[in-house]
Amino acid sequence: MLSNFNNRKKNDIQKEEKQFIVFTVGEERFGVDVNQIKQVIPVMETTFIPNSPSFVKGVINLRGDIIPVIDLAEKLSLKRSQVEEEKKRIIIVELDEISNMGMLVDTVTEMIRIDAREITDAPEIVKAVHSDYLQGVAKINNQLLILLNLNKVLTTEELIELEKIEF
User: Fold this and answer.
1) What is d(CA 122, CA 130) in angstroms, rounded to the nearest whole number?
2) What is the helix (H) or strand (E) element at residue 5, kind and residue range?
3) What is the dihedral of CA 140, 146, 147, 151, to 10 degrees?
4) pTM of this structure
5) Integer Cα distance of 51 and 10 in angstroms
6) Which domains does the chain show, CATH number per domain?
7) Rounded CA separation 167/165 (Å)
8) Is the Cα torsion angle 24, 91, 70, 86 positive or negative in sign?
9) Is 117 helix (H, G, I), strand (E, B) or coil?
10) How far apart are CA 18 and CA 99, in angstroms?
11) Which residue, among 110, 104, 139, 101, has the nearest Cα to 26 in the 3D structure?
12) I need a labelling partner for 32 at 20 to 30 A (CA). Which of 3, 5, 13, 148 fits?
């Protein structure tokens, strides 16, 4: 009887999957763990904040909350693509240091499940560049998907600078 239990236990092992939202910025595809995302909204009018860093698009009023919006193309130094305004999205995330922040992306394409064993660490050459926000890389249908940790897109210095801005 015990041997049957042991055999069944080995066969019942399930692969660990993680869910990711896939989005584009410029020509690049990125994935972010769904647990980091509060919501995805269409682009709304932003209010420019004088003397803010160049990657800060402005702030939005989302149901009474004033939320700073970061332009990920600008922050990640990516070439912009010509995307229709109605396809652009703001990904609302809750960061450790700031309650809510919006990240402007070109498109949100899908939600996918990735077997955790398919995720590899970022290559060493990429780690040499200041890129703590790179969580890893996954190969999906012969294409690489760069996995980001949105909690680390902004450096400590940038977060301090954002906190000084009066919204």
Assistant:
1) 12
2) helix 2-11
3) -160
4) 0.81
5) 59
6) 17-164 (2.40.50.180)
7) 6
8) positive
9) helix
10) 24
11) 104
12) 13
Instruction: Report d(CA 30, CA 11) in Å as an integer.
Output: 33
Among 109, 101, 97, which Cα is nearest to 145's? Answer: 109
22 bridge partner residues = 31, 110
Going by the DSSP 8-state scheme, the letter that residue 32 receives in this structure is E
CB of 141 within 8 A of CB of 23? Answer: no
Q: Can you tell me which residue has the tokens 């070109």?
A: 106
- Stretch 125-149: mean pLDDT: 77
Within 10 A of 35 (CB to CB), how many other CB atoms are there?
8
Residue bearing the bigger pLDDT, 20 or 159: 20
Tokens representing 73?
A: 């193309």
- Which bin fits 111, alpha (ψ -120 to 50), beta or left (φ > 0)? beta
pLDDT (average), residues 140-162: 83
Q: What are the DSSP E strand ranges found in 26-140?
A: 28-33, 37-42, 56-62, 65-71, 89-93, 101-105, 107-115, 119-120, 134-140
Please give the structure tokens belonging to residue 133. Answer: 């926000």
pLDDT digits (tens, 9 = 90+) for 8-56: 444 445 678 899 999 999 888 999 999 989 999 999 999 998 888 889 9
Instruction: Inform me whether the pLDDT recorded for 59 exceeds 90.
Output: yes
